[in-house]
Design goal:
It contains 29 helices and no strands. The chain is mostly helical. 73% of the residues lie in helices and 0% in strands.
Length: 692
């Protein structure tokens, strides 16, 4: 017997609009069209060359004019039309995805459609095979569709906002890591792809626009033909089946059409972020006032028009604020991503919380002998990985070489190798332990097993601070880099933990806030990289991949100091960690102040994350995987979890760094990219287990 379909007002679903007695949708559409036309006119007049009304008229009528008119025809008009197409495609895709999933956070970004399409295009580029534009768009469509199918299958349609965005964010991070690895490994073939990957509507002629326009029209026509069935889905699955609507077929068709629109957008302008989230969010309040917007046949084109306004508005605002010369180097996608991050934060603050995102750990209380054996085995494995990491690389050494180096009797060649290799091995080892310790504490404090410095935006804040210092002060030392990273992590932590503290660090709000802040830091980091010189940009990209290349002993000294202090405090305060991880009342009954203890552990988490980011770059999922695995091996008591988690984190990052240095030597892959590829399936496994 089928379970009853939850009402639309349930958490995680799109609320049923309240119809007003009057219409007005046509008037709203006319007003929005006027806004879009005005933005389009302003957009084509902005640029480094002066273009007046006469030049625009000459271009529209096809009359030859000055060189400024030629610039208008070759660049400005294609840019404006691309903005219309991209915004319309993403807006319609987001509206369709939210309708069929009954989830207000469904969008090409949160379903990893853009990340999948971007990876497909980059993968096609590195092959060196020249393919027509439409063939590349087909590859992008396949990649985006596959990503959307995986996310929807993992999250479950209508299963809740947090599971959807967690599944999408995790898959997008994994796909982006593979993309970044390809860009770093094939710099000649992928030159300029990173900047294009930030999303920009600038075009060189009408060729791309002319080829993608029919695709967008086909997507719009398909969604309009599907509109009545989409409306039936809003009544619930059982009701839709009762009126003869094929529920599964309708959803699949809508997702395919949304992926087609998203692929067209990515092929034309790169992955422009969060337009598919912002446009439906702007239209949703209007649907409460205007009856016509309740129907999908009207709402989807209206949302597409809103998306066009968002993209053109972002481009106009960028050129008005930054100036024409600066705006050329700043992708439009950076602005839309920042706006989308704000939308995520606002939606997180307004969303109800059910705690459905948590995947509770299974209770297991191993004996002391088992725990001791676990620690010994992990310690032996850590030592083995450490020795292998020191000996293996582009040049293979022997243990005798290491002994001679330690005693000062090694030759010049061996000394040179070990002087550069040992610091980076220690950086990976200490960074893994620090991130695991930070993840253990933040999961205990927030009582959220899915909390992790990377997911919560703390790592992104640290990376932003470090990249900002690196691109502005290239000669900054290790302590300066650690300080800048600490400031960035602290700002991100204050935003995430401060805004979620009022609700008791509930799962939904905490994770959504973290994803929003992380999206903002990612956009700002991309802006800094594309705005700096090529040398600094390459250096920042390598560092962001989690590479320990070029680390010295002074670089890892701040991390070692913070790790020792953090581990000592965590061990001394292990009982407080146990208590705050239970509930709010138990610590108070025992005379503790949960707020003070929570603040102490969060400060340590920020310092540990910042120091790890400064020493080894951005390394994701370690703070999630290590604590989970530690609790499954040692139980819930932190006196056991802490050492096991730190050993696991150290082993994971050290092994990832070793693989990145040796598998495709002499080329190298950052440890952060390897941990992302490994951590994404583990994260997805936790989501699947939570769904069960």
């Amino acid at each position: 017997m089928n379970a009853p379909t939850p009402p639309l007002a349930a958490r995680g679903s799109v609320p049923a609009p309240v119809r007003s007695p009057g219409g007005g949708a046509a008037g709203a559409a006319a007003a929005l069209t006027a806004v879009v036309v005005a933005l389009a006119v302003v957009d084509i007049t902005q640029g480094t060359a002066h273009v007046g009304a006469a030049d625009v008229w000459h271009a529209v009528t096809g009359r030859t004019g000055s060189s400024d008119t030629a610039v208008l025809v070759a660049s400005r008009l294609p840019r404006m039309v691309a903005g219309l197409l991209v915004g319309g495609a993403l807006g319609m895709a987001g509206s369709a995805l939210q309708a069929v999933s009954r989830n207000v956070l469904a969008a090409p970004d949160t379903l990893a459609v853009n990340a999948g399409a971007y990876l497909a295009l980059v993968g096609l580029t590195v092959t060196g095979v020249a393919v027509p534009f439409l063939a590349a768009s087909t590859a992008a469509f396949a990649g985006g569709l596959a990503a959307a199918a995986v996310v929807l299958a993992l999250s479950g349609l209508g299963a809740g906002t947090v599971r959807l965005i967690l599944a999408g964010s995790a898959l997008a991070l994994g796909l982006s890591s593979v993309t970044d690895a390809l860009i770093l490994l094939f710099p000649e073939r992928t030159e300029g792809l990173y900047q294009w990957g930030q999303g920009g509507i600038g075009q060189n002629g009408f060729d791309g626009v002319a080829q993608m326009a029919p695709v967008v029209v086909v997507g719009l026509a398909g969604l309009c033909l599907l509109a009545r069935k989409v409306d039936a889905l809003a009544l619930g699955d059982d009701a839709a089946r009762g009126v003869g609507v094929p529920v599964r077929g309708t959803r699949v068709t809508a997702v395919v059409l949304a992926a087609l629109l998203s692929a067209a957008s990515v092929s034309l302008a790169g992955p422009i972020g969060f337009v598919g989230l912002c446009a439906p969010a702007l239209v949703r309040p209007l649907a409460h006032r205007f009856r016509g917007l309740v129907r999908a046949r009207t709402r989807i084109p209206f949302t597409g028009l809103t998306g066009a306004a968002v993209v053109l508005g972002a481009d106009v605002a960028l050129r008005a604020v930054a100036g024409a010369d600066t705006a050329v180097a700043v992708p439009t996608g950076t602005v839309t991503s920042l706006v989308g991050a704000v939308f995520l934060v606002v939606m997180a603050l307004r969303s109800p919380d059910t705690g459905d995102s948590a995947a509770p750990d299974r209770l297991r209380l191993p004996g002391r002998g088992v725990f001791a054996l676990t620690v010994v085995v992990l310690a032996v494995v850590a030592v083995g990985v450490l020795i292998a990491a020191v000996l293996l690389g582009d040049s293979t050494l022997l243990l005798g070489d290491v002994v001679n180096w330690l005693t000062g009797r090694a030759g010049r060649a061996v000394s040179l190798i070990l002087d550069t290799r040992v610091p980076r091995v220690l950086a990976a080892l200490l960074a893994g332990a620090a991130l695991a310790l930070a993840g253990t504490m933040v999961q205990a404090v927030t009582r959220n097993p899915l909390a992790e410095p990377g997911v919560l935006g703390v790592s992104g804040g640290g990376a932003l601070g470090a990249v900002l210092l690196t691109t502005t002060v290239p000669t900054a030392g290790s302590w300066g880099l650690a300080g800048a990273s600490a400031v960035g992590s602290a700002v991100a932590a204050v935003l995430v933990f401060g805004l979620s503290a009022r609700s008791g660090f509930h799962h939904n709000r905490l994770v959504l806030l973290g994803v929003g802040v992380s999206a903002a830091t990612t956009a700002l980091i991309g802006l800094l990289i594309v705005s700096t010189d090529q040398f600094s940009a390459t250096k920042a990209l390598i560092w962001l991949s989690g590479s320990t290349y070029g680390r010295t002993f002074p670089d890892i000294l701040p991390l070692a100091v913070v790790l020792v202090i953090g581990a000592a405090v965590a061990v001394v305060r292990r009982r407080e960690l146990d208590l705050v991880s239970l509930d709010e009342d138990t610590p108070r009954l025992l005379g503790l102040r949960p707020a003070r203890q929570r603040l102490l552990f969060l400060v340590l988490c920020v310092l540990l994350t910042a120091a790890a980011v400064a020493a080894a770059g951005t390394i994701g999922f370690v703070g999630l995987v290590a604590p989970h695995a530690a609790r499954s091996l040692a139980g819930r008591r932190h006196v056991r979890v802490l050492p096991v988690a730190m050993l696991l984190g150290a082993v994971l990052v050290s092994f990832a760094d070793l693989l990145g240095r040796t598998v495709i030597a002499p080329a190298q892959i950052g440890a952060g990219l390897v941990t992302a590829v490994v951590g994404t399936p583990y994260f997805i496994r936790l989501l699947v287990r939570g769904r069960r």
